[in-house]
Amino acid sequence: MIYVVKSGDTLQKISGETGVSVQKIAADNQLKYRDRLAPGQALLLRGTDGDKEQGMGAGFLTGGYAYPFIDPPVLEEALPALDEVLVFSYGFTFAGDLVPPRQEERWMLERAQSMGVRPWMVLTPFSSEGAFNNQLIRALVENSGMQERLIGQILSGMKEKGYRGLDIDFEYILPGNREQYAQFVGKVKEKLGPEGFPVTAAAAPKTSGQQKGILVEGVDYALLAEHADAVFLMTYEWGYTYGPPMAVAPLDKVREVVEYALTQMPPEKILLGIPNYGYDWTLPYERGITRAKTIGNEEAVEIAVENGVSIEYASVSESPWFTYRKNGMEHVVWFEDVRSIRAKWNLVREYGLSGARYWNLMRPFRANWLLIGPAKRGQGWKIPCRSPWKARAEWM
To answer: Which of 22, 148, 173, 319 sits CB 3.0–4.6 Å from 247 for a disulfide?
Structure first.
């Protein structure tokens, strides 16, 4: 169950009312402060048999993205709840040569495989400065020779390192390249599919085919679904570093994206994006000047506790938030907790989507992993087959 802290609550009081030990509440929620709670704070409460219970992710595909420099304990905390971990990321040059991550990633693959989790390669068109480069995308999708060279290196690299699937994350695609990009995804699938490697494509959130914007005009949901095994909807970043304060993934906005996507592709082709982070804005917000600080979800709760403020919960966006004052400055924080995560997984269930992926795994969020999946550490396991893509994933 999810318990929302009331004014005057203590862990001892909550334990007495629910029968869950203080130690277990503190451990499952990674509480930094046991003697102080914030009114409005959401706690995941599990009994002694909690590890045996089915989580919200049962029967659905669950994955998460991570850089190779992730802290090993943070990765290990998440792995038991995951079917796949997506290593971010591989790039490529204008010559079509595959570029590995700057940090060695083999340890991640070994750790994932030892726990029955499939490692996936992520391909991004990053420039040397580490930003998405749509000219690099353009060069690739307009040059068949460059494509053949890159796909060949991807296939050999996946086999050599033990990857089990490929996710293509191209952003800021030029509108004139939208069909060519989808065709490139299809060409990758044609080459990798017979070898047993599923291919997915990440896509910016859209609510109509006529939507304007540099992020969305080069993305065609129907074409991507036709050419990929599944499409990952990046349903987050409404609230973002340089934008005005608001929920990172407001449920009403996420629902709009899903409902549009369902007009373009079947539900079993859709993976929902879930953020594992929040933002702290200083006020007043000034466009072009204010820069929000990225924080972890558990860090957000600690900030509320340290400053003695209550956590609110927005009913429409299904997101927690609060304000506080520090060093003479007003702040507002939007983040995720087990209530907002439950709401997103309920959306996956409501529409019968294939599952969800988290961006990203870099920050601890133990209560989330306990909510979506029982502990499976050290066990190889399979999820129920709900689509041809999932069937192929299980054969792997």
So the answer is: 319
Residue (of 272, 279, 298, 284) closest to 369 by Cα position: 298
How many residues does the structure list for the chain? 396
- Three-state DSSP class for residue 357: strand
Gap between the terminal Cα atoms of the chain: 35
CA distance 182 to 72: 35
Helix, strand, coil fractions of the chain, as percent rounded to 5: 35, 20, 45
DSSP secondary structure letter of residue 278:
E
**Helix or strand run (H / E) with residue 257:** helix 251-261
CA distance 30 to 320: 18
Find the helix or strand (DSSP H, E) in which 261 lies.
helix 251-261
Q: 231 with 271: CB under 8 angstroms?
A: yes
Q: ∠ CA(60), CA(62), CA(66), 5° rounding?
A: 175
**3-state class (DSSP) for residue 305:** helix
Whole-structure pTM value: 0.93
Cα–Cα distance between 309 and 41 in angstroms, integer?
A: 10
Helix (H, G, I), strand (E, B) or coil at 282: strand
Residue 160 annotated in active site = no
Q: At what angle do helices 178-192 and 134-141 cross, to 10 degrees?
A: 60
| Integer Cα distance of 37 and 35 in angstroms | 7
- Taking CA atoms, 304 is separated from 6, 40, 156, 325, 383, in Å, by 14, 10, 49, 10, 38
Choosing from 105, 171, 299, 336, the catalytic residue is 171
pLDDT tens digits along 57-93: 999 999 999 999 999 999 999 999 999 999 999 999 9
Summarised one tens digit per residue, pLDDT across range 181-210 is: 999 999 999 999 999 999 999 999 999 999
